[in-house]
Amino acid sequence: MFVSVLTAKATTKGALKSPIDYTLIWTSKGANITQLEDAYIWLPIPPHGYKAVGHIVTTSPVKPSLDKVWCIRSDFTDLTEVDSWIWGYDTSNSSNIVNLYTTKPKSSARSVPAGTFLAQTGSSTHELACLKMVKRNPSSAMPSNLQIRRLMQAYAPWVYFHPDEEYFPSSTPWFFKNGAVLHQTGRLPAHVKGNGTNLPNNVAPEDAYLDLPENEDDKERVKKGFLHTAFAYVHVKPALGGTYTDIAIWLYYPFNGGGKLQLGPLVIPLGIIGEHVSDWEHITLRVDNYRGLLKNIYLSQHAKGVWARPREFEFMNSTRPVVYASLHGHTHYSTPTYHVHMSGKLEESQIQMLYDEFQKMNNSNKYNIVKGEKFFGFGPRDDTEKSDNVMDIASRYDLVYTDYKNSGEEPWLNYSGRWGPKITYSFAKVVFKIVESLPDKLKELATKALNALPPELLGEEGPQGPKMRENWTQDERV
């Protein structure tokens, strides 16, 4: 495992000062853990106007020397937040609880992680700082175009689609060429030209949207996308003060299919709920600029997503992660299975009722029943599985934007309207049809579950494009 710890040299007078004291945060002395020596974790107490950026760990109960660490002048620091859990010790004795976390800057684009850890106990409320990027453009450590290509060759994912997938990605020119229609307030509908040259870039999201072709046969054909010529669209930007590079890999789908709901052991198809024109999903590779190593992978999932460690993935050719796109919804996961986003918990009586009903329906083909597992909640369900339909991103991408250098832009990238129309179906009517198909005892619970679905799953309006989203310039949403 590689660990980076930032060291600092003062180039401005008074930028660094020694702490004035230490506070003992936690000791392993007396803890029921295997250890060669007792450990002591200390928090430096900074002078007024300065911040501590890390802890000191010793094997002695004697406070460390004050010249062992520097504190940083406050105007050179930024706030941090907890990132990943490293290790913890917990007993019934609340005074001896400790959890160790990595930290990351809250303002990720302009701040540099120190590589230190945060120790929190049951009673601690302290924070650590990181360094603020003083230079306005942290581009000196960012990769060149040649290096970006090599990073893509090394780390670009393979994306597998479910065997039952109907709606595949396409390139944006394929979508335009095959009859995409621009609707704009105060103007007649018009076909999109070329590579989006007639798409407006200065309208409010509500004043323009794209739609499928009007002809029904063409509409059904375009919904399915065209995997054979699909491209990923790559946006490269600095992260964590330019110490990392984020390679955001965007996939475009002309259509998003209906979803599923997990209700205890039952899997309920949601019909048209979740359907909408156009779907933009992405995967972000975070690469360490010091060593060129893949640090984390972000997987978009229902308007937000998760950061995952490389060890959570299987790999092709040793370095390229395998990513699974969920059936119809196209959310990304690291494993080929089903995934339930819990929207609520069930009471014990509800659980028992579900399993009573489960026994009655066990031999029925009307419902999809998950056998051999017990679910204590409900929520949207995503299915992933490997199939012959796979996209090799390393050979199918277009570098569309680089934050830290001049780069050509595709015309469609600056389109500020929506990529699909607002859905006009009645949610209440759809819910009623789904609920009425269930046994009587499940209707009330199913209604509660459906009403708890997140708004983004309902697909009430088409999405905006990648450049119009918050995470284009900020860190990924989790």
UniProtKB/TrEMBL annotation:
It comes from the Eukaryota. Residues 456-478 are annotated as: Disordered. Residues 467-478 have a biased composition (Basic and acidic residues). This is Vacuolar protein sorting-associated protein. It comes from Helianthus annuus. InterPro entries: Vps62 (IPR009291).
